[in-house]
Write the structure tokens for this entry.
Amino acid sequence: MAAGGGSNYWEDLRKQARQLENELDLKLVSFSKLCTSYSHSSAREGRRDSSDTTPLLNGSSQDRMFETMAVEIEQLLGRLTGINDKMAEYANSAGVPSLNAALMHTLQRHRDILQDYTHEFHKTKANFLAIRERENLLGSVRKDIESYKSGSGVNNRRTELFLKEHEHLRNSDRLIEETISIAMATKENMTSQRGMLKSLQSKMNTFANRFPAVNNLIQRINLRKRRDSLILGGVIGICTILLLLYAFH
């Protein structure tokens, strides 16, 4: 290869190597700036999430730029590695022993540059991925907080209404139970009084049959008793209706 290409072949390889190194240097500077600006852009987007406007350059577009630039840099590094391999092959060829030391020194400089660029690329890429993962996590936390804040007011209001309704139902149930208890007690009392009155009336009827004057008095007492019973029943009914209306109000 050395005999056929000579020094022109070597110089052509060096020219290609320097050109690739310059391109890599520019790409890596832009790549580093993209990594640095990513967190600031993500923070601004996080503050604008609740607004109606969406920036043209958001996290997704920066991710696409990152992927594109990473592929381009990897391709340039691969091409530069290939050029360095060709330079090593030429420097190790038997046709140029007198220049071997100088060529190897030049080759080592290009290898060092390639190694530095490779190391810088992987470091910047790792930093970018770490920042993106952190921003994604923070963004998720911010969304959860905003979602909780937006929903907590409505939830608290609904909870308050539910509690009030539950308390109203409990009060209604208590009033109904009290009304039923009063009605049952009144019924038992009236039943007991009716039994006593029947027993007393039976005795008085027996006595009245023996004494006509007493019989006339008993009839008037029975008439007044029926009237009082009707009045008492009406009062109890009205009280029951009023209590039920208050309970369901």
User: Anything to note?
Assistant: Helices lie at 2-47, 59-91, 100-210, 212-247. The two ends are 106 Å apart (CA to CA). DSSP finds four helices and no strands in the chain.
